[in-house]
UniProtKB/TrEMBL annotation:
Segments crossing the lipid bilayer: 20-43, 50-68, 132-149
Pfam families: Rce1-like
InterPro entries: MmRce1-like, Rce1/LyrA-like_dom
Highest taxon listed in the record's lineage: Bacteria
Protein name listed in UniProt: CAAX prenyl protease 2/Lysostaphin resistance protein A-like domain-containing protein
Keyword list, A-Z: Membrane, Transmembrane, Transmembrane helix
Length: 162
């Protein structure tokens, strides 16, 4: 809707339900494998050392570097690489906020990560018009709003003291 308001022409969405089911199945497994490391292993010690925002920013930067080679292989130029970095880091900050708000919830990160991949792959037709600039700006705004939400009492995971 926002892309249309900005004058971009978009084809109608054509969800192919077997593809949707396939993407969810594949991406939930891939996200679970990644989030065991990013969220389950690395996030809590980084949160202890750098705070919630610092941990999210640091993990987001490393997470973007992890994905930078595929973005380069897709032929992204410098501007698009910048916006993929903004979006990737912002996604990780949001996932860090979710982790915090769910008291160490790795499943919330898996669900969010899965959603990122499924929506990218389908929007609006097999990822044909995904706009990294719009997504990056919206994610930064969401991060700002998320940071304003009241925190729950954080319950440490894996016996790491708060």
């Amino acid at each position: 809707m926002l892309q249309r308001k900005l004058g971009q022409t978009l084809p109608p969405a054509e969800p192919i339900w077997p593809a949707v089911i396939f993407y969810i199945a594949v991406y939930v497994l891939a996200a679970a494998a990644e989030e065991v490391g990013w969220t389950g292993y690395a996030l809590e010690p980084l949160r202890q050392r750098y705070g919630l925002l610092g941990a999210g920013l640091l993990l987001g930067a490393v997470w973007w570097l992890w994905h930078a080679l595929p973005f380069l292989m897709m032929g992204h130029g410098p501007a698009l690489m910048f916006w993929t970095a903004v979006g990737t880091v912002a996604h990780r900050v949001l996932m860090t906020l979710l982790y915090d708000r769910t008291n160490g919830g790795v499943p919330s990160a898996v669900i969010y990560h899965t959603m990122i991949n499924v929506t990218y792959s389908l929007y609006p037709v097999q990822g044909s018009h995904y706009d990294y600039r719009i997504v990056g700006v919206l994610l930064v705004l969401l991060c700002s709003l998320g940071a304003l939400l009241p925190r729950q009492n954080h319950v440490p995971v894996r016996g790491v003291p708060s």
